[in-house]
């Protein structure tokens, strides 16, 4: 590989990997089961609304 080509790709992405692997202590954490239950209930709610409006 010549020195003129883009040889810094792996080195430049190392900072992004380190950034995305870090855990933020102030982030909102939710149980995945809670999110799934909310989505199912929201879907049922939308289906009930579509039956009553139509």
From TrEMBL:
Q: Where can this protein be found?
A: Cell membrane
User: A Gene Ontology biological process annotation?
Assistant: protein transport
Q: Does the keyword Transmembrane helix apply?
A: yes
Q: Which UniProt keywords apply?
A: Cell membrane, Membrane, Protein transport, Translocation, Transmembrane, Transmembrane helix, Transport
Q: Name one GO cellular component term.
A: plasma membrane
Q: Name one Pfam family in it.
A: Sec61_beta
Spell out where the chain crosses the membrane.
Answer: 35-53
Q: Which residues lie on this side of the membrane: Cytoplasmic?
A: 1-31
Task: Kindly give the membrane topology term recorded for this protein.
Answer: Single-pass membrane protein
This molecule's function is given as: Involved in protein export. The function of the beta subunit is unknown, but it may be involved in stabilization of the trimeric complex.
Q: Which family does it belong to?
A: Belongs to the SEC61-beta family.
Q: Which NCBIfam families match?
A: PRK01253.1
Listed under subunit, the entry gives: Component of the protein translocase complex. Heterotrimer consisting of alpha (SecY), beta (SecG) and gamma (SecE) subunits. Can form oligomers of the heterotrimer.
Q: What is this protein called?
A: Preprotein translocase subunit SecG
Q: Which organism is this entry from?
A: Halorubrum alkaliphilum
Q: What is the lineage of its organism?
A: Archaea, Methanobacteriati, Methanobacteriota, Stenosarchaea group, Halobacteria
């Amino acid at each position: 590989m010549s020195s003129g080509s883009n040889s810094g790709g792996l080195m430049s992405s190392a900072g992004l990997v380190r950034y995305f692997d870090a855990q933020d202590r102030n982030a909102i954490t939710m149980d995945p089961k809670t999110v799934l239950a909310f989505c199912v209930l929201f879907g049922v709610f939308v289906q009930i609304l579509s039956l009553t409006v139509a």
